[in-house]
Design brief:
Elements (H helix, E strand, L loop, with lengths): L7 H14 L37 E7 L7 E5 L2 E5 L10 E6 L8 E9 L6 E11 L2 E9 L8 E8 L6 E8 L1 H4 L11 E8 L2 E8 L15 E5 L9 E7 L6 E9 L1
Antiparallel strand pairs: 1-4, 2-3, 3-14, 4-13, 5-10, 5-14, 6-7, 6-13, 7-8, 8-9, 10-11, 11-12
């Protein structure tokens, strides 16, 4: 992989500017959509929204963990998705799965998204596989960026169950250091493209920096992928989508070009 090591300090400075610009970085409106609960997702075409709608039109928010009255606000504009935690929030442990309405329910599936950062505080982007909600209970396989000790080249695989005593059960951690950088001081520049898929019980994750390469690596590229198996009992029909967690009050995170298959 061709790496622009010399550009990384510049990329980190540019990231702060990207965060400040928010949706303007995508050429979109910067006015957030206030919603009760936590919600978001995106589509390549503009999405109509109503102030009375419980979630952005066309998308289902599937809450995994709550934190008092804390909530997220989401703006969906074309291919851009911005999720924001209002400054009035009192906690940072909200976790949310986001799936597009009409996405087929299946066993084998994949989800991808481009993450523009920032990688500050506990901002935690990710993906969900086999997400489903029934009788107020959300279950999913989540693949999320590690936020402990800044080791963001590690992706965590959890079995999420909002009704369980342990709503996030860790299955394992996947090492993407070859793709994302081996030090918190020398991470690959943003934006990052993150993908996850499940085939049977095998969960494979793929990641790369779009600043370093403009071609997608294959699912067998050892430098950009890692995989593990989840228990057979964890495999259920569901839908792929996005994951967002741990936004502290006032934080926002920026996505674009989510795809599922």
């Amino acid at each position: 992989m061709a790496r622009t090591v010399g550009h990384r300090p510049l990329a980190r400075r540019a990231l702060a500017a990207t965060a400040a610009l928010g949706l303007a970085a995508f050429g979109c409106s910067t006015a957030p959509q206030a919603v009760t609960g936590t919600k978001a997702d995106a589509h390549p075409t503009p999405v109509e929204r109503s102030a009375a709608a419980p979630s952005p039109a066309g998308y289902d928010p599937l809450p995994i963990t709550a934190d008092g009255a804390s909530r997220f606000e989401t703006t969906v504009d074309g291919r851009a998705v911005v999720v924001h935690a209002p400054a009035s929030n009192t906690g940072g442990n909200v976790r949310l799965a986001l799936v597009r309405r009409g996405t087929p329910v299946a066993l084998d599936q994949a989800s991808c998204v481009t993450w523009h950062g920032p990688n500050t505080h506990n901002v935690q982007p990710g993906l969900v596989l086999q997400a489903r909600r029934h009788d107020g209970r959300t279950q999913a396989i989540t693949v999320s960026d590690n936020i402990w000790y800044g080791a963001r080249w590690t992706l965590n695989v959890h079995l999420a169950d909002s009704a369980a005593a342990e709503p996030m059960h860790l299955v394992g951690q996947l090492d993407l250091a070859g793709a994302l950088g081996r030090s918190m001081l020398d991470l690959e520049p943003f934006p990052w493209r993150l993908c996850a898929r499940i085939r049977g019980t095998a969960v494979t994750v793929k990641a790369w920096s779009l600043a370093d390469r403009d071609t997608e690596p294959s699912w067998t590229d050892a430098g950009h992928t890692d995989s593990l198996d989840v228990p057979t009992t964890a495999v259920h029909p569901g839908r792929p989508g996005l994951y967002i967690g741990h936004l502290t009050p006032g934080d926002a995170t920026y996505f674009s070009d989510p795809t599922t298959r």
